[in-house]
Design a protein that fits this description.
Length: 376
């Protein structure tokens, strides 16, 4: 491990970035970005754009949780940082929009380059405030073991909900409110989310490939041994926690502006368990795992909530589970729960592992075909 740390030290950041630009991961990233950017040309219905945008936002959120897990830590209260980012950006965005509108003599800020600049600004502020709160939590709890920290974060999400309710005159979280539209929903906001998703996930990937990421992995494997070889485990664990909460805040900011509403329900336990479930479904500890998990879980959830599918579920499964619920979320959660159980039992390494096995099998079969033809 000592040798590995020194090897990473010898490679400057510039060389690491250049090396990354020549990897298959970067090529895959570029191809993915192009495909995502071209989707609106071929898919124009509102539901598809809504679904793709939501998947990208949750990909950032799940990746932020996975980043923390890669440092040997856990969180059961990530919704607190999702909500802090969302509330902060919405409140500050509305204040700035009102000030600009008052200056220009209008009722709202016009959709323009100025509104885009304000949107970018408030998203970053949401992430920074979330990271700042994460720093305070981390300083108090950085020495706790993984699941003790997870319980602390869960408790903090409950406290965040209570504080938002108590100081409703500031947050307006009890009734909720709509943030001022700064970037038009639909294609413009979709492209904004693509940019944030690609930059955020790439940044987390590069960090995990850097010397810092090596320290994170060493702590995850064995914190005592990492400490023995000179790694400041407290510093690196705190750094991982702050970075994770920053990107969770970014996701929260994007989510609130996307759905055009925010209230205290954003702090709910459902939103805390969401990134964990997505990461486990996709593949814990992998870059693609949270993304695949977000695609799978978000798609299943949204499709099951479509009116036609909802009515079919009510007609077929409702009589079988009369006390679960007549339709909608209860039956949706039941189906998602069954899917999660099946994946965890039969594919504990996630869907990413299965896709890799399938890819390896296909490539092996393709190599066998020419040999068979030669033999004939």
């Amino acid at each position: 491990m000592d040798c590995l740390v020194k090897k990473e030290n010898d490679m400057p950041l510039k060389e690491q970035i250049i090396a990354f630009l020549h990897t298959k991961a970067f090529q895959l990233l570029v191809v993915s970005f192009i495909i995502l950017a071209l989707i609106p040309i071929f898919v124009t219905d509102k539901f598809s754009i809504f679904l793709f945008t939501l998947i990208l936002i949750f990909s950032i959120y799940a990746s932020s949780w996975n980043f923390l897990a890669n440092s040997g830590q856990g969180s059961l209260g990530h919704a607190a940082f999702l909500g802090i980012g969302g509330f902060t950006s919405a409140i500050i965005g509305n204040k700035i929009a009102q000030a600009v509108a008052a200056t220009t003599g209008g009722y709202t800020i016009p959709i323009s380059a100025l509104s885009l600049a304000v949107q970018l600004c408030v998203i970053f502020i949401g992430g920074l405030i979330s990271a700042g709160i994460g720093l305070l939590i981390g300083l108090a709890c950085v020495r706790l073991k993984a699941w003790y920290l997870a319980m602390v974060t869960f408790g903090f999400s409950v406290i965040a909900f209570a504080l938002s309710s108590q100081f409703d005159f500031i947050t307006h979280g009890n009734q909720g409110f709509a943030p001022q539209t700064l970037v038009q929903n639909g294609f413009p906001f979709y492209f904004l989310v693509i940019t944030f998703a690609v930059v955020s996930i790439t940044a987390m990937y590069l960090i995990m490939k850097s010397r810092m990421g090596l320290a994170f992995r060493a702590i995850k494997e064995n914190e005592s041994e990492a400490r023995m070889i000179g790694i400041n485990t407290s510093k690196y664990k705190l750094t991982a926690f702050v970075i994770s909460t920053f990107f969770a805040g970014i996701a929260g900011s994007l989510y609130v502006y996307f759905i055009s509403f925010v209230d205290n329900s954003i702090f709910s336990p459902t939103n805390s368990f969401l990134p964990l479930i997505m990461t486990v479904i996709g593949g814990l500890g992998t870059v693609s795992g949270p993304i695949i998990g977000a695609i799978f879980l978000t798609s299943v959830g949204q499709i099951l909530n479509l009116q036609g599918v909802n009515q079919t579920l009510s007609a077929t499964l409702g009589p079988l589970f009369p006390k679960v619920g007549y339709a909608g979320p209860p039956l949706t959660y039941l189906i998602i729960g069954v899917i999660l159980l099946v994946i965890v039992i039969f594919s504990p390494q996630g869907l990413t592992h299965q896709f890799r096995k399938l890819y390896t099998y296909i490539m092996t079969e393709e190599k066998k075909e020419p040999k068979k033809n030669e033999g004939n």
